[in-house]
Write a structure and sequence with these properties.
Blueprint (H helix, E strand, L loop, with lengths): L5 H6 L10 H12 L11 E5 L12 E4 L1 H8 L5 E3 L2 H34 L3 E5 L13 H12 L8 E2 L7 E10 L2 E11 L1
Parallel strand pairs: 4-7
Antiparallel strand pairs: 1-2, 1-3, 5-6, 6-7
Length: about 190
Amino acid sequence: MICKFRAICKTLQYSCTHVNCPAVAQAIKILEKAPEKRTTMAKRIQLVLTQDISKLGKSGDLVEVAPGYARNYLIPKSLATRATPGILKQVERRRELERQRQLELKQQAQEQKEALEKVESFNIAKQVGEAEAIFGTVTTQEVTDVIQQITGLEVDRRGITIPDISRLGTYEAEIKLYSDVTAKVSIQVVAS
């Protein structure tokens, strides 16, 4: 009687009580000599991004991705290039230039902050109704215009945070000049 299940039992590491036969013994030897399947994942590939990719990185970043993602998507669409020593040196030079540029921008923002805080208050004239209530509200564009008239500095209106202003009085505004440089200025709303 030939055992049809001996090879299956052997690969599943069960103790087999079936009858030994030459065909099954030969199959078992072949199975034992067969190389094991690869259980480790493929190595990841290092690439340098040539464009910004959401959830992966910005242009010039060194990233590690799966080989299939690199081979089938990033490299054919020219979104990334393989990381070679020459390209890594270029990336390092670009990073250094970007760091220096960011330092210069931060220094300029510090100087703007000092210039803005030297001015005691910025006066904005508005039409007044009953009980010192103003018509409309003070907008960030009006604040930007007043700052430019008085100091000559150009400030991005999107970086200005002002409270709701509906009456005459003095209010505090925050102007974000750089990621970690914020100037606080006083805004005085007066009757026109």
